[in-house]
Amino acid sequence: GAGVSQTPSNKVTEKGKYVELRCDPISGHTALYWYRQSLGQGPEFLIYFQGTGAADDSGLPNDRFFAVRPEGSVSTLKIQRTERGDSAVYLCASSLVGFNEQFFGPGTRLTVL
Amino acid sequence: AQSVTQLDSHVSVSEGTPVLLRCNYSSSYSPSLFWYVQHPNKGLQLLLKYTSAATLVKGINGFEAEFKKSETSFHLTKPSAHMSDAAEYFCVLDMRFGAGTRLTVKP
Questions:
Q1: Does the beta-carbon distance from A104 to B43 stay under 8 Å?
Q2: Residue ranges per structural domain of chain A
């Protein structure tokens, strides 16, 4: 079966622009997670969905970041007024249920010029 | 508050010698603990997970970890390192990743 997919694989944008990053989880997985990973760092937790609702969004750094999962499957991470410090690899993962083994996508590399 | 600390940013071993990667955690409830591995330019892969059924957890590729509640530790070990083990290793508490330990294996 298909794994977690993320689109686009690379995104280059200019400071101040809006971006959307998409995640397609493994079919049937109820939990979905977003992380970002900067070079040489561990993945930083952003938000966790259980079904359609955000069960934990304590990792979102500020109100420029927002994520949705309207039908409990695909999720979109939205970043407004991008800043150069937002440059990182954004990782999505899904698991059958929360707090279980996570399956990671390949990531979206975001570069803000 | 939940937190996880990997005590070594870099570990270097010779091929065929034991590997020890250290992880301490802080949790107010029974934790969900995992070890993940990330090879260069590859995705994150689960090595093993603590499920509370047993304190000694066996994972893939010969790795294992022991959950010690009294020491709040979940160290990762392997009896004999292989060149292909060179990678970044992450200890994870619930959804919180440690900073990672880079394992180098010398021939």
A1: yes
A2: 5-112
Q: Residue A108, CB half-sphere, CA atoms under 13 Å: how many?
A: 26
Is residue A1's pLDDT more than 70? no
Q: Which of B18, B11, B13, B7 is CA-nearest to residue B80?
A: B18
For domain B3-106, which architecture applies? Answer: Sandwich (2.60)
* Residue B14, amino acid: S
Q: Is B49 on the interface with A (CB under 8 A)?
A: yes
Q: For residue A23, give how far its alpha carbon lies from the nearest alpha carbon of chain B (Å).
A: 15
Closest CA to B34 of A97, A4, A86, A99: A99
Q: Is B94 on the interface with A (CB under 8 A)?
A: yes
| Residues B30-83 pLDDT 10s | 888 999 999 988 889 999 999 777 889 999 999 999 999 999 999 999 999 999
What is the CATH number assigned to the segment(s) A5-112? 2.60.40.10
Answer yes or no: are the C-beta atoms of B65 and B22 closer than 8 Å: no
Residue of B nearest to A104 (CA): B44
Residue with tokens 């971006």: A19
Residues of B in contact with A45 (CB under 8 A): 95-97
